[in-house]
Design brief:
single chain, seven-stranded parallel beta sheet, globular, alpha/beta
Length: 277
């Protein structure tokens, strides 16, 4: 089923206080969503964003949620259902990145668990809270999962992040196929795999051949349109699709030589990232 807009629909966005999440939520408000639910762990930024979107005319609900906790997700989801009912559009956007070191140099081992919990497990737990009602509703519903091009090719100095996004991509696209196989064509899952975006999360990372740092408004606009269209997979930009295709065709050593030559394997050498909350 085609979805022209989210007007009259209920939208939930994770990681909604800033960056891509804030832009997704803003887009939902501008399309006159019936309610927009914001989840984020940053309480101060979340309240500020909620106030801004309310001023734009949106009906906004916000919850401080640590999505690395399954219990926190379940509690927040129950609160959402009590406040606004079922969710029609779910945007799994929350994510973290740790990098600029080789795996064996990891000093804070808790970062491994946290990265997997937020980037891989959280979308699963959150979707499991809302997907059954989407299936039962028989009306057009969408799940938009923000993965990464790091889930398409291997990349040094971000091995755990890459692992988390490989997991997210494999899970997300498998759920899409499950829905199609079960005949629930009204629910569409879109997985987005962008390269580095100018949100601050990847400060210090370098673009590579013909692949500059992506503009977040372009990523959101494109992802939103493809989500409504029910597109299964969106890889941004075209060079990332090329890298994936060549990686699948070339022998491993030739693949490594190619990706190292175009700069992929050196792109995290000077990564600093956003300051932790």
């Amino acid at each position: 089923m085609k979805l022209e807009s989210v007007a009259g629909r209920t939208v939930l966005v994770t990681g909604a206080a800033m960056g891509l999440g804030k832009l997704f939520a803003t887009t939902a408000v501008r399309e006159r969503a019936a309610a927009v639910v914001l989840w984020d762990i940053n309480e101060a930024a979340l309240k500020e964003t909620a106030a801004e979107l309310t001023e734009l005319g949106g009906t906004v609900h916000h919850h401080v949620v640590d999505v690395s906790s399954q219990e926190a997700i379940a509690e927040a989801a129950a609160a959402v259902r009590a406040e606004v009912g079922d969710i029609d559009i779910l945007v799994n956007n929350a994510g973290i990145v740790r990098g600029n070191q080789y795996f064996w140099e990891t000093t804070n081992r808790a970062d491994i668990e946290k990265t997997m919990a937020i980037n891989s497990l959280a979308p699963m737990w959150i979707t499991l809270e809302f997907l059954p009602a989407m299936v039962a509703s028989k009306s057009p519903s969408r799940v938009l999962n923000i993965a990464s091009s790091a889930g398409l090719v291997s990349n040094p100095r971000m091995s755990v992040y890459a692992a988390s996004k490989w997991a997210a991509l494999g899970w997300s696209d498998s759920v899409r196929i499950e829905l199609e196989q079960a005949g629930h064509e009204h629910v569409k899952v879109t997985t987005v795999c962008p390269t580095y975006i100018d949100t601050g999360m990847f400060d210090g990372a370098k673009g590579f051949w013909f692949t500059p740092i992506l503009k977040q408004d372009v990523v959101v606009e494109t992802s939103w349109a493809q989500m409504k269209a029910g597109t299964p997979l969106l890889v941004l930009p075209w060079t990332s699709r090329l890298n994936k295709a060549l990686s699948g065709l070339l022998p491993i050593r030739a693949r490594d030589l190619f990706l190292n030559t175009v700069g992929v394997y050196r792109s995290m050498d000077h990564f600093t990232g956003r300051k932790e909350i």
